[in-house]
Amino acid sequence: MSEQNKHRNGSFSSSIGFVIACVGSAVGLGNIWLFPYRLGQYGGAAFLIPYLLFVFLFGWVGLSAEFGIGRLAGTGTIGAYEYCFNARGRKKLGSVLSWIPLMGSLGIAIGYAVILGWVLNSLAGSVTGVLMESDPSAFFQQAATSFGNPLWHTVVVLLVCLVLMFGVTAGIEKVSKVLMPLFYVLFLGLAIWVGTQPGAGEGYRFLFVPDWSKLLEPYTWVMAMGQAFFSLSITGSGMIVYGAYLGKDEDIPKASLRTAIFDTLAALFSALVIMPAVFAYGQDVAAGPSLMFNIMPTVFQKMPMGQIFAVVFFLSVFFAGITSLINMFEAVSESWQTHFKLGRKSAVLICTAITLGVGIFMEAEARVGAWMDFITIVVVPIGAVLGAVSIYYILGWPKIRAELQTGRKKPISRAFGVVAKGIYVPLTILVVILGLVYGGIG
Questions:
Q1: Residue 412 gets which letter from DSSP?
Q2: Which of 3, 114, 370, 394 is most buried, judged by most C-beta within 10 A?
Q3: pTM recorded for the entire structure
Q4: Where are the domains of the chain?
């Protein structure tokens, strides 16, 4: 990467490091507790048809757009939107609009930190054995109340702060290279073990026996679209900053599809762990988020060597969540660092203080749930629309096409621009509308 193109925060050392960091950002808690249920509920193997279709579409033209504008502008959210709108002589408007997706990243970070605090609390309870001897619901509720989990909540936020203050891109890449492979290894091990449990076959049937009639129901397609869209972390913000740290010799569309593939594998691994275990031990398949904190601990209490597998499970979940939280912090910190001419450590510390200062008052399950609903149903989808429109219409396809072609040996497909402008952008708008109608689809 040439010095004139190199961001002052550094750059990813390789395409593999970049993809792993992006996979870390994309793989989150929704892959773990939401995808398995939706896969089974909406047609099993039949659900995979629309899901994989949308994953390919959003990964191909959606992730590519955010990576591309980040690399082209050489900076994160605020600077990228300014760059797009400056092409029309409206740089200030771009700066103002950029705060919507940026606040989406900050808003998710605030709620995510609370939830990851719960994960660490459950991990600690698994290590000590307290969780294995308690009523899982009561154990969880002790943490999910007002000011119920300040210790682990603070540990999560400070851990991310330290990674970004002293590592920047090198820290992001190193952490992701360790944690994401471990996530896959640990979940694969869990999946193999769960598959040996009596009754696990019912879980596999729930997941993979196709109900083709579901493909005729619009709701199946809506949920598949929402799951794919949010799973890839297309927010109009987070992936832009990673693109800013990418060298000009990297093939962005190729890296985008790799990210989508590994994100999908993470979701499938999660399904292979959770649903067979839930069926094997007679738990509620539709439990939603409580699958992690109530249902799975109940399963582990009944399993041979359950304490070990509880530790492995919550450690894996933590790995998936912390890499996503690092991306949210980085999107906000880089923009403030660049836009307000702040020092790196100052920008990260301000983001840390806000995340913890606001989140500490939302440790109650109902409060953080309402907060996350507003952010994910309203703010983040609108930010994603702004990103798509800004890149493909305000900046324009010819300019972003030239950036996406950089680093590629083969020409960009002619269909790319047509799909991006004619299908992808309208679908992002549809995600906003359907999210409001259904009270969330991702």
A1: P
A2: 114
A3: 0.92
A4: 15-438
